[in-house]
């Protein structure tokens, strides 16, 4: 980082999005620099590379995309990758984009072209593609044998184009150096490289215990609300949507380095598809609150880049409108989740991804998905899922103030539902990994989150009223990290456990909770652990089908009664 060289992964070309994000921050903070990404021509086949170049041109950002065209993607020839012989021509119709060409085998031509590109990007605050005509002299890697797809004549010709050999000839022809002087430089360079190699080889092997270092940054720690609970004596009663909106505005007033963007974020009075962010742009302006294109990978990837520029920056994404449409961003989400670990703690993408999740709105299979089970498998990603207004406010505040990547799932059916209302203290904070006992009991524990928390509470109330049975309801709130202690203590007290969530029973997150209980509290159980969730089907649009698929109070009550009678 001190050299302004960023750590990138091996995913082909995905760092183009990071470069665009860095350039956006340069422009916002008037940093007076340019961002540069460098990749092979085969990376331009990736859709997100187009998103990066198109987005940079649309936003008028000072970024240089260097395309090193060596005509091969491992063994795949350029003819099988691009409609145009020069891949940069694929972008020739994009407005505000400058395309420059150079001989990548010629040091001076390459240097001069990069100098021109830098000046153009700086002076015009516009993106540039530098298309470098290169050669690949050897195989792609140790596991690749280019003899299998390149004939002897081609292999001989590319060796003649070796830029180091050509550079030496140019220096000699210039009369500035003699053979002896270049030989001396060559020997000195080899000595430096050899010394560095020996130094690295002598370094001790890593400690196996270090695998747990830098998985996730230490989060913001609440001093006033260490358990994430309050007595309800202070604050205003709000619905979930009001609490989210109020918290966003409070945090933006507190921290001028906070930004929010997403689809439908900044269109007059519209603040997100559900108006959760209503009034944000009006108060904080278009630099901090702005629209994103319908390109989820671009949204996450460039947010990652923004935070690379300055660790103080916090980006809130109101992405994809619905969680169902977030899947195109998986490539960048995976990459961002291990940035902190991969960089040995030197970089952390400080991003909060807000997604409207779940069903119960008659939305069908693409407005009803629960995606948390798949995403909790990513180390380095925090996942939270509040169901009440106070928890939504407290978790959002903690997420924005924390370093690292947080997936903030919002049960959209609860946005305006009175059952999710709560008194919200103005400064309320909920730590990650702290469950909340919403109702105390002694006969059965219901562990739940999201849309099914209010249902479980109503079922608990009915069972108490009808049969005098005492049911404890644990709202886990935070899936990753998970509050194992609260769950286990409750199960040890009641000796019966029912896990309830909206997601599918098969492969749902509840399976992790059941595994936890059976592994660490088995001897305390008086009955098998049961689960209630949705069927292993997509969610139907028809309300009759939706009711047959998603869990409801009737199913929760039936499972609870079965356990209590066991």
Q: In total, how many beta strands?
A: 20
Helical amount: 25-40%
Strand order of the largest sheet: 9-8-10-11-13-12-18
Mean residue pLDDT: 95
Number of domains: 3
Q: How does the overall form come out from the CA principal axes?
A: elongated
Number of helices: 18
| Strand percent estimate | 15-25%
What is the CATH architecture descriptor of the largest domain?
3-Layer(aba) Sandwich
CATH superfamily of the largest domain: Thiamin diphosphate (ThDP)-binding fold, Pyr/PP domains
Poorly predicted runs? none
Describe the SSE topology.
Layout lengths: L14 H14 L6 E6 L6 H13 L3 E7 L2 E2 L2 E2 L20 E6 L3 H18 L3 E6 L18 H9 L2 H12 L4 H24 L33 E3 L1 H15 L3 E5 L17 H5 L4 E3 L4 H14 L4 E5 L11 H8 L1 H4 L8 E7 L14 H4 L5 E4 L4 H13 L3 E7 L10 E3 L11 E4 L4 E5 L3 H16 L3 E5 L2 E3 L3 H11 L2 E8 L5 H11 L9 E5 L8 H7 L3 H12 L2
Name some characteristics of this structure.
566 residues; alpha/beta; Rossmann fold; 3 domains; seven-stranded mixed sheet; 18 helices; 20 strands; 37% helix; 17% strand
State the gist of this model.
By secondary structure, the protein is of the alpha/beta class. The protein is 37% helix and 17% strand.
Task: Describe what this molecule looks like in 3D.
By secondary structure, the chain is of the alpha/beta class. The chain folds into three domains: 15-161, Rossmann fold (3-Layer(aba) Sandwich); 236-424, 3-Layer(aba) Sandwich (Rossmann fold); 436-564, Rossmann fold, CATH 3.40.50.920. Helix content is 37%, strand content 17%. It contains 18 helices and 20 strands. The protein has helices at 15-28, 47-59, 107-124, 152-160, 163-174, 179-202, 240-254, 280-284, 296-309, 330-337, 339-342, 372-375, 389-401, 452-467, 484-494, 510-520, 543-549, 553-564; strands spanning 35-40, 63-69, 72-73, 76-77, 98-103, 128-133, 236-238, 258-262, 289-291, 314-318, 351-357, 381-384, 405-411, 422-424, 436-439, 444-448, 471-475, 478-480, 497-504, 530-534. A seven-stranded mixed β-sheet has the order 9-8-10-11-13-12-18, with helices on both faces. It has a five-stranded mixed β-sheet with strand order 15-17-16-19-20, sandwiched between helices. Helix 1 (15-28) packs across helix 9 (296-309), helix 7 (240-254) packs parallel to helix 13 and helix 15 crosses helix 16 (510-520). The longest helix is centred in the middle third of the chain and has 24 residues, at 179-202. The protein is elongated. The protein starts with 14 loop residues before the first helix and ends with a helix.
